[in-house]
């Protein structure tokens, strides 16, 4: 008879929830740069976002479901293009809308983590030249300050910029005439954009702390989990540093850093090694690899030092919910192991709360909650019920060695 290892208890105050992004769930974000991309020809975008999940109107139902499932935290983003649709003009109505979401989360027992930028920018900001344009840092800082009515009360965690390394990679792609998303292979980030988003992040941190020094502020990094094959350690480091580590290093003065991982990237002496033909793949064609989050946590801790870690995204796109549950079980075992080894992990937020617009397609179903795209009916999957229940038991599962 095999003894089942005792589960690992959550640390005090551990965040347990799910994440979303405004553009991917709200619908009709017509003033954003992505809305233009979605309605332009000659791109890799398969379909436009249109109504998305209609969460702009249906957010109370989304929060009701998350709370009823047992989750204690909800990460969502506010949309810059709604709040500042025209340069210098801030919408009081939109600020009030997002404040109502914050209050709605708190009323339901969900601690809100608010992301201020999740890939999309206002059309006017993009037209000025985006992050590398003159004055871009100051414009972002002004927007962050304008979000005071949303975040200055009852919000304990704020994310300034989601996956800045992907923003820099996409900027490098654009300069080379490639507009695919997600990027194919491991393209090189644009150095100018890298410097720009780091400067914007540091300016935003100052603005958030000026609003309330008690707010825990950080940003989230896309962790590719680079694995060096024998003899490829130096090659791997050369791939990893500009694409990941420089952004982790920029968080050393932050209150926390977000770890976001989904699969692994194997590197040989000549560069990236494609996954074998016979490996299990997800709907995004990524290798099914639940161990990614554990490796990402350990590497981030090694680079950033004593900054607390939060898993802000981790999940799988699949049409087989049993595989989703198995993926989460494997990933959480990795989180539990890292906690036992003394790594300072403050929370785990799954990607994603809902099936959503995955930057060009609705086919990649990451959601714990399924969406009927005709009626917008929400249906929690079995994986959601299981994952949410862990928020009630306050224990992480651990598998036998």
From TrEMBL:
KW Hydrolase (keyword) present: yes
Entry's family note: Belongs to the glycosyl hydrolase 1 family.
Keywords: Glycosidase, Hydrolase
Listed EC numbers: 3.2.1.21
Originating species: Streptomyces microflavus
Family matches, as Pfam families: Glyco_hydro_1
InterPro entries: GH, Glyco_hydro_1, Glyco_hydro_1_AS
Highest taxon listed in the record's lineage: Bacteria
Gene3D superfamilies reported for this sequence: Glycosidases (3.20.20.80)
Name of the protein in question: beta-glucosidase
Active site, UniProt feature: 313 (nucleophile)
Keyword flag Oxidoreductase: no
């Amino acid at each position: 008879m095999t003894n089942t290892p005792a589960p690992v208890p959550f640390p005090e105050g551990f965040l347990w929830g799910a994440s979303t992004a405004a553009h991917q769930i709200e619908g009709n974000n017509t003033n954003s740069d992505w809305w233009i991309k979605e309605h332009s020809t000659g791109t890799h975008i398969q379909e436009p976002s249109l109504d998305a999940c209609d969460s702009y109107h249906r957010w109370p139902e989304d929060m009701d479901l998350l709370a009823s499932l047992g989750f204690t935290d909800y990460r969502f983003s506010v949309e810059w293009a709604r709040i500042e649709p025209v340069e210098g003009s801030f919408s009081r109505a939109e600020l009030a809308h997002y404040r109502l979401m914050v209050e709605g989360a708190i009323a339901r027992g969900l601690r809100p983590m608010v992301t201020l930028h999740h890939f999309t920018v206002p059309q006017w900001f993009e037209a000025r030249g985006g992050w590398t344009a003159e004055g871009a840092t100051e414009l972002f800082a002004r927007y962050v300050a304008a979000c005071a009515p949303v975040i200055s009360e009852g919000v304990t965690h704020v994310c300034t910029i989601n996956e800045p390394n992907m923003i820099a990679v996409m900027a490098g792609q654009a300069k080379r005439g490639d507009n695919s998303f997600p990027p194919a292979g491991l393209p090189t980030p644009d150095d100018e954009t890298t410097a720009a988003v780091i400067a914007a992040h540091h300016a935003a941190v100052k603005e958030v702390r000026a609003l309330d020094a008690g707010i825990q502020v950080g940003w989230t990094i896309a962790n590719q989990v680079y694995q060096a094959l024998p003899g490829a350690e130096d090659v791997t480091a050369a791939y990893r540093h500009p694409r990941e580590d420089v952004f982790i290093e920029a968080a050393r003065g932050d209150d926390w850093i977000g770890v976001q991982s989904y699969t692994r990237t194997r590197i040989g002496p000549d560069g990236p090694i494609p996954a074998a033909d016979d490996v299990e793949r997800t709907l995004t064609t990524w290798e099914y690899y639940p161990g990614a989050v554990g490796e990402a946590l350990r590497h981030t801790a090694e680079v950033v030092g004593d900054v607390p870690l939060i898993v802000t995204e981790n999940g799988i796109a699949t049409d087989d919910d049993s595989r989703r549950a198995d993926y989460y079980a494997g990933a959480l075992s990795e989180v539990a192991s890292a906690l036992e080894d003394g790594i300072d992990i403050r929370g785990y937020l799954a990607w994603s709360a809902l099936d959503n617009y995955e930057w060009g397609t609705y086919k990649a179903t990451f959601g714990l909650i399924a969406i009927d795209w005709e009626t917008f009916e929400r249906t929690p999957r079995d994986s959601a019920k299981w994952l949410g229940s862990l928020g009630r038991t306050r224990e992480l599962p651990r598998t036998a060695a």
